[in-house]
Amino acid sequence: MKGLLVFCLLLLCTGCWDMKDINELAMVDMASVDIVPGTNRLVAYYQVINPTGSASRQTGPAKASVYTYYVSEESPGRFNEETRKIMSRMLFTQHIQCYVFTERFARTGMVDLFNYLELNPDRRTNVYVVVTDAPIRNIMESFTPLDRVPGRNLRMLMDLQAKSAGFTRKLTQVKDIVAGIPLSRPTVIPMLHYHGKRPASLSDRVEYIQASDPGFEISDGAVFVHAKMVGKIDQSMKKLYFVLNGDARKGVESIVVNGSIVDLELRDIKVKRKWGPSRLRITVHVKLRGLFNEQKKHLSGRNLNEIERSFNEAYKKKAEEFIRFGREKDWDLLGIGDVKQGRGRWRDFDVSIEVKSMAVLIGNTRTPYQ
Amino acid sequence: MPQQQQQGQDQDQNLADRIMERLGVSPDVVHRHLRSEAGFEVSCLFLTSIADQKLVDETIIRPILHAARMPAADSASFEPFSWLTATIFHGQMKEKDGLEACIGAILDGHCLIILPGKQQALAMDVCKREQRSVEEPATESTIRGPREGFVEDLIRNLSLVRKRVKSDKLVFESMVIGSETKTMVCLAYMRGIAATELVDEFRRRLQAIDTDSILESAYIEEWIQDKTLTPFPQLIATERPDAIAAKLLEGQVAVITDGTPIALAGPTTFFQSFAAPEDYYQRADVATLLRWLRMAAFLLAIFVPALYISIVSFHPELLPPLLLANLAAQREGVPFPAFIEATLMMVTFEVLREAGLRMPRIAGQTISIVGALVLGQAAVEAGIVSAAMVIVVSITAISNFVSPTYSFGIAQRIVQFFFMTLAGVLGLFGLMCGVFFLMIHLASLRSFGVRYFAPFAPVILSDWKDTFVRAPRKMLKRRPKLFQPEKSGR
Amino acid sequence: MEKALQLSGWQLFGMTSAFVAGTTFILLPVGLISSASQLAWLVQLWSVLFGLAVGGFWLYVASRYPGLSLVEISRRALGKHVGGFVSLCYIVFFIQISAWVTRNMSDFMQINLMPKTPLSVFNILALLVCAYAVIKGIDTISLVSVVLIPLLTIAYWTPFTVMLREWNWNHFDYPVNFDFWPTLAETKYALGFPFMETVAFMMAFPLVRTRLKTAFLGGILFMGFQISLSIFFTVGILGVYRSSHLTYPIYNIFREMQFSTFLEHLEAIVSVTALMLVFVKLSVLFYCAVSSICQLFAIENRAIVAYPLVWVISAYALLFANIVDNEEWVQHYLFIYYVPFGIGFPLLFLIASWFRRRSDSTKEATA
User: Fold this and answer.
1) Which of A105, A284, B262, B410 is the most exposed place for a label (fewest CB within 10 A)?
2) Which of A5, A8, A23, A66 best probes binding to B when mutated, by most B CB atoms within 10 angstroms?
3) Strand ranges (DSSP E) for A23-149?
4) pTM (two decimals)
């Protein structure tokens, strides 16, 4: 007992190696990596939360919710060291909400960076990731309205998209790219676009009523093969990619029935794959809900059948186009090469699509106003 | 013959004088020579401070003085003792032999009648039953349930228990402990229900007490508990006779001490500290929820400050980012690390609590006002502590008082400070070591041979229905196995 | 009212389970998954079978020497000097394993949670707490393990359950050439770790009066199965590719668990809580070392042995320079090193008991 007491006192004298007071931390909210063109030099941007500017109850005079620091180094392992030259607080990366990579950096291949992220226990790989085609300073030096912390803003935006696309998991995370390294199926990461020429870098930004320009937009997709960006796909392709791979279970489509536009919400999308020796049959089961109907006539069973049939055809056509697009680009977008039937010979597979839909909800009006 | 009488008077003088010598010059010692109308002479000794003067006058002195018929003192058939027994109007009369017995009796509130020439005395119990009336227990109040609490008088306390358990199985064994205080201590148990070994163990430990004084039951508790080096109470202390009765009926043993309203019962376990007597006077579901609430309060009390410290100073990643930013904003400008901040606040709170306890009731108001200021707004606004810390300390402080057993609440506080220190030094790892240490400690404790952590470890499933829940009465047909009762059915 | 020290079946069960789980869930998955890919859980099941067989063997050996602990058996079987030497070997063995367990624990803490705190602080604090447990005795340790097992099982499986939404059956379709025998040969350390370490329980067998076999084998089965299941889940959630590259794949599952949007990162709490199992294992091993020393040299007070041993073990734990050294040693030499202790010596005891019986019966026959 006496020994224990002595030990406790000793602990008190020497302890606290890992003590880090929360006021000594620079909480990084969003980080981005860019590359200096023509060199191997990486530029890392850290967007650090300013506690007094972002807390719900403001205590200080500071208005800015975040500050962006950037450092430039040859290899990622030294970023931390570099930040100590310019930041007064210790870099704290556990709460990064979102990683942003520039397109030019993503195209050079990012395996080394991901190795760095996985190696360090204070970096996380279940963090959202986007690729941007805008100049990185525009992204990293802009304030955002509504959610005043940009990283959180992006994250909530993507959460919302994942929810409306019926994802059971998060939209995209760093670990999706990592897990995709050995696979034949490319990983698709959302793209972040920026409206505007210059960054909205004054905190006055949030005083303006105009919120979408300058502003962020997440749409389209960057295609990654072995952690290297190889191309882009547009928003509708990206949606199909998620649907046909079984991630997305919801969506919105427009079709033309009898020469009029009908907008439909897709629900409970179920994708079944049936493998033959060298053929793949994909069956898509969808439940439909009407969102907008341009046909000025009473909704009858027959008409609903028409809607269903034209949806089936239209969707099938789209999916076939998607498959053709993948072949053209030499991307195994359906991941055929990752199952044992198709390993190494996904191009030889004959893929056929069948869409079966059922209209279940039509909304509040059966007969539209003429 | 006169010589003989002389000698007798000497002896008489001797006994009475020797008693007077021993008792000294205390103003409350009364020594009267009584001479009856018939000329028969006796000495009467008692202590006015503890004897009932009126009772002595009415039942002893008057009958002797007014004894109408008096056989001749020198007649052969004269038996002074039987004469006195016939004369004095008193129910309890004992013969005391020798000086020590006589002094013991007189200190016990007896009135001594010493016959001339005898070394014996007649002792009548004329003890003044001066006591406060039975009141509601101050420390253990209940909403529903009896309002009676023990008082300082042993006999009264026994009656309070006896009144509740009208059974011939109820046994009170009395013994006198303390070479100077000669305190009467009563061992109570239900014969045929309490395990014989348990009763024997209690008796053995009580008899082994070697001390000069027992002024409160805490003295006894310290003497008979299994382990001294632990903050946890190994005997339940209560001033509720209904609680004692319930425990007796479960096969436990109680120790009731003269001079204090606090009775002891044992063996007890860790989980009994969460059971209030009131649990049994309420609906089973309500009682169960309340029990869970108390357990949750215990966990809150020991973990909240420690977790707060370790999260804020070691593992900030555990907090959601917005909350973290909020906390950081609050702590901007607070000069102390979280551990110091927490210790400061907790100690301040303890000081306030102690002051509130010791202060005269009238001044209590001041304490609460000052306390609210110190622990609240002012400290936050002065930038000495953060608002979150005030919340943490308040939650903890309130939770400390939830336990129905007061001494358990104190143990809880000690554990709390222990955990806080560990968390302040090594974060969650330190806290985890503390938890493991505490578990080992609790599992190693025993209370009169019963595992302190039972019925959780070792697992006694059948006892869980009156530990983690309070099952409806209809399901509590058997006594807890924990105390290994002689008869398990109720 | 003191009764002779005795353990119930449940206590042995809890202790065995905690012991088997011990450091296994920290260390084992990555090696198994990188050797056997998606079939790692099968390998684990196979080693559970082996564990059961070996456990049964020890129980049989112990039943030949009723009421005797490992040290006493060895002295009874092999005589005072040889037996004493074998006991000494076992003592060193127990101390060694305790040191490794301590080191694994502190490595885990340092790599994942507190990178700046020196290893020896973790070691000494953990060992001191365990020394307290050792002094309180094996019944206390086992009682605590009975309490911990259900709580920790819940704490351990919660992240897996939450992470089920990341489940992907395709992970089991990882392209791999699975050769049965080479894989088994490569993963033979899984047989030794933890299933040959359980030989330590031979110190506790004589204390258990009821349901000894069920409790011991049940504990091995219960926890071995859970580890196998958690490897299965790890593959399903993280995939073969990622989990074979990470140092602590299961910790990564804890890390990536998002309990709700409010509580995003609970890994520190979950993993620190799971470390309690390591504490139980450490306490058991420590107890075995201490009580063998006490039995061998007839020392009454365990505290005299336990506190000095804290320093020995904590120093010994620093022997490996880093976790890579440690893992390579485990993969190459561990099984061979464990064989004499797990199988060799017990076999020797068994043979000795046969000889003894034969000589007894011949004596009887001649008489």
Assistant:
1) B410
2) A23
3) 25-35, 42-49, 66-73, 90-92, 98-102, 128-132
4) 0.89
